Model the fold of this input.
Amino acid sequence: MVYIPLTRRFTKMFVILPLLLCALSILPRINGFVPIRFGRPVRPLRKEINKPVEYRLPQEAVDVIRKINGFYGLVGPDVNITEAKTLYELFTGNGYIQGVFLEKGSVQYVRHVIRTDKMVYEENCGKLPTNVEAIPMLEWMDKRDVLPSPMNLANTAMMYMNRSLYALFERDVPILMDLDFANKTVRTVGRTKMEGIAHFSAHSVYRHESKTVETIDYDVCSSEVKYAVLNESMEIINHTTIKTNYLPIIHDFVSHEDTVVFTDSPLIAWPKYLFQGKVPVIFNPFLPTRFYVMNKHDFSYRIFETDKSMYIFHYADMIETPSTIIIYASVYRNLNLSGLDLQGCYSRITIDKLSEKVSIETSNHFKYANLDFPIKWGDKVILRNVNRRGATQFVVCRGLELVSIIDFKDRFICGEPVLVNVEGGDYLLCFLYDSEFNGYFTIVDLANFEKQITIPLDTKVGIGFHSIFVPYDRNDTIVQCKIMT
Ligand SMILES: [Fe+2]
Done:
């Protein structure tokens, strides 16, 4: 006899909910979905804002601001960071964009909660269940247009392709945004239609020269990773599927000239956690990690293994020679999605193609630092450091050598900065907040880290993940991909 643990949560999710939804599918729909009362209507934590920012700064600073023309935007989850208890909670918040339009010295701050199908539905019907055991059922309902996808979050990164801005989440399709430079507004257009691929990586790579975009999708049920090359209309040109050893929860990948690399980290399904309300995945620190190195032209691949267990969120750099592949990345020796602790050790991973050995090394500078969100700056990499006081520093390094530290002392970094080059000068743009969450827009002159321009935004800001800068000279937003109806 098979024992099925019909706990209340299990019964509600797998028996009552599907029956109820089937019965309700004949009702009139809200935004195309079946109206079911999940709770009180959701109101975004953060309100829409669009306002000019006034500032008084020395002429030298005003001259720098005048030189930078474009939109700096940071996307993140609309959650209260002081109340979040798990990474899963942070990763599954509804997306919002905070940004500044910079034009000839004027600064306009905007905040827009991305109006995904899920967000619009929740404003009417209450919050969709977020507990992880409900996700497969909700996704099944999404495929039948009964409910919006619980992964319709658009909270991780943005991509600007062919004059269109997209908000991305790795378990969803891109959400097209309208970035309107004339009126200095950001608004949501809708989900893009994709065929042949279910999800679009938040770290997809757009190639301006070939007008193509490379992305990956993963399927945890079949342990498969799909690598695809698409055109600007989001149609697949080429693709391949690779089987992995573990659950392929892959956040980022490296796409080099001829090679794609991704990591198969020892993430294992742990169904027992379903009944404890936890993410049913564990990271096994005693199992090896595998690096998949794929030829982009013929899709042949090799697997290189290290006995060290690790997870990588983001790759900082990769150098390939005929005999080696050197990767710089923050390496996590543990990953608990049901907690908040993360410790990223910036490391160099060397894959020897001849001996097939993988070695990992770091330097004393980075052993106890907590670095991630790398951005390339010439031969250097800039990373955000979380120390005892919080995320108050950017660390600049060349290889594993520490070059410098940009310290904001009593202010905290909201999320990924962006590097802009104007009139031969490199500047780092980012949002900061103080202990009261008052927001500041900051420009750091990378020729002299002490030269920091700080503009108080006179509003509270929140945390974000990845950012983008869209210069003014590429400013006509043209909606030309297919939108889901
Ligand atoms: Fe990321």
Summary: The first strand starts at residue 49 and ends at 53.
